[in-house]
Amino acid sequence: MEEKNNVSMEKLVAKKGGVFKKIKGWFTSPNGMQTVRFFSGICCIVIGSIIFVLLRSYTTERFIFSFALDFTLMFSFAEFFIMTGRLKKSETKGFIDPFTAAFMLGLNSYFLPDFVMGSYFPKSNVLYILLGILLCWLLYLIGAVIFPKPHAWFCGVNVIFAIYALAQYYVTEFRGNPVQFADLANIKSASEINGMYSLFLDSNVIFVLCDLILIIAVTVTTKVRKIKIRSRIISGAAVIAGCFVFVYSGRFAYDLGIKNRYIRLNFSGAENADTYRCVGYDLMFCFDGMFDRVTKPDGYSTQKAEEILDQYETADTNKKPAIIAIMNESFADFEHIAQFKTNKDYLPNYHKLQEESISGYVSVSAYGGYSCNSEYEFLTGNTLGFLPSGSAVFTQYLNNKQNGLVSWLNELGYTTQAISPCSEGLWDIGNAYEQLQFKSKLFNCGDYISNCEYINDNMSDSSLFHYIEAQYESNKAVPYFVWTATMQNHGPYDDISTVPAEITFEDYNNPEALQYLNSIYQSDKALGELIDYFRDKDEEVIIVMFGDHYPHILSFTEYLYGKDVALLSTEDYSRLRQTPFLIWSNKGVEAEKIDDISLNYLSNKVMEAAGLPKSRYQQELDKIRCDIPIISSYGYKTADGEWYSINDVAEKYEDTLNEYETVQYYRMFDEKRDNSIN
Fold it and tell me: In the chain, is it the N or the C terminus that has fewer CB atoms within a 10 Å radius of its CB?
């Protein structure tokens, strides 16, 4: 009845004629006042958000601009309460069109994560803005079409966007990279390490919570006009059409420069974060799910891949030394970036061992996190360079048996064992190690150690290495390969009391960096003890150790570089993706320094040091490495010494890249592959 009165009043006003009178009449009608009230309320929230962002920047220009917005905010604020007062006095309270409400709410949801992350308007292309707003509008429109009273839907979508904005903020703070669609597969893993980090309350978090509360308050106090069935069907068709427009326009927009995250290519490692800022956090997250997928290499066929591998022959051997492979959590040498002064060497054993080892710096795909990708590259010889940006291989692509270093050592007669201080849920390593074909797997090994020590609130490397020594003694009668990934040096680095303090800075102060350096000093000490344990063993023992990635201590990193990481040159940035490694043998290896190598090739060097024959795939990798000595998720280096983005095909090496991608795709995704081919 109330809605009929509103319609009748509008018809009565319309009969009086005149465009301006009709517009004025609509504004003074209950429906018009309700719309203006809703519009003003949303504007208050959005404009308030812009002022909040500008005031945080503290620049004079932004300060002046914020004052101009203050007047707009005051006007919107006043208009909201004026219309609220008029509606209370009117006989009917009026209704807002649900599509108008959906559009306004969509605008707020579009801006929310961008404001929190400092991604300001405008974007690098106007199409990104239009598609981002269309995406948010469509999500609200679905509820407007389906439900007669879409308030609950509107509030629910608001909650989802608020959670998404907070997730982007917290995760970026913790690991230095934004949340991507692929991370939905990593929720279980995230819960495993959640206890290592503390959620904090600051102005950004309060801002998101206030936005959510205010939007819900405005929404639930606004009456939405009911749509007739016929109009709802037409509107539903319009929503479907809008989805088609979004998908097809999105494909075009994605190819404008978003593809593979190199819209801001400078090898800085911040391409991913820069792309999210330049495109918009809502839209880029959606694009991740829609387009960032594995595709077949050009000219791919199962036969072609098998012909490449079949050109090699394999052999057996009686020489089978024990191999201990250690991926050392966040083990990095910041002096590889620039020199700084400490009271003493924080990696004394590593530096001494270089004199009797194959050592150097290995290029890794990961930075600040995604340790599972470093595990995968070493254990398989595959590269993240051919997988979508942001991939977490263990949680996304290990759905069946995959050949690699482990399966080949199994074929050579080794007992292969994975020992982890973590639970099998972290990066889903329980399933990953099963698919990588370890014969034996042990998780939470600290539970089996009496008086287990903890450093940095994690199982110490010393305790882990002592456990590996005991496992070696139990398996010394057979060829033995053991793999472990440490946890001692894992962040956050916010409590130096959890680490023995032996390293201090000279003329510099950074608590995070200081805790980290003391942690890897203890890790280096444990490495020295491990080497000493095996040094005089009668049986040959090979030990390989490498860091999985640099820790995300941005303030220290940029202090050493003297500039924003995003502004680094290719050569400068490449050092931030190079971690120390060494390959040592108690029977001696010829000391060698290697810098031009990436993690996918490192296991080949281990095979050479151990005097073991290589698999067909490992022989193919040797061939590839002659042309492309480094290939990682962020780019590759050719034999000419030139660097390229992973999306930029060097014409001279096009065939080599295609050959590598072909055999990798075969081993990872081809359902017709022959798993007997190692």
Answer: N
Q: Is the separation of the CB atoms in 424 and 430 below 8 Å?
A: yes
Let me know: does 524 contact 366? Beta carbons within 8 Å: no
Q: How far apart are CA 518 and CA 367, in angstroms?
A: 20
Closest CA to 29 of 117, 102, 90, 82: 90
pLDDT in tens, 48-105: 777 777 766 566 666 666 777 777 788 787 888 887 887 777 767 778 888 888 988 9
Q: Which two tokens stand for residue 184?
A: 């939905």
**What letter represents residue 60's amino acid?**
T
Listed in sequence order, the residues at least 6 apart from 518 whose beta carbon sits closer than 8 Å to its beta carbon are 346, 496, 499, 500, 501, 502, 503
What are residue 476's phi and psi, to 5 degrees?
-70, -15
| Mean pLDDT within 569-589 | 88
Helix spans in 223-327 (H):
229-253, 271-279, 281-291, 302-310
Closest among 632, 657, 647, 649 to 257, alpha carbons compared: 647
CA distance 356 to 590: 7
- Report percent pLDDT > 70 for the chain: 87
Q: Environment class of residue 649 by beta-carbon count within 10 Å: exposed (0-12), middle (13-18) or buried (19+)?
A: middle
Structural tokens at position 103? 């559009």
Q: Tell me: the pLDDT tens digits for 379-438?
A: 999 999 998 877 788 888 888 899 999 999 999 999 999 999 998 888 889 989 999 999
Please check whether residue 600 is in contact with residue 377, taking contact to mean a CB–CB distance below 8 angstroms. Answer: yes
The pLDDT tens digits for 137-153 are 999 999 988 888 899 99
Tokens of 354: 């270089």
pLDDT of residue 579: 95
Supply the pTM of this predicted model. 0.72
Determine the pLDDT at residue 260. Answer: 44
Instruction: Say how far apart CA 439 and CA 428 lie, in whole Å.
Output: 17
Which structure tokens are listed for 4? 């009929």
- Number of Cβ within a 10 Å radius of residue 209: 13
Q: What is the C-alpha separation between 440 and 416, in angstroms, rounded?
A: 6
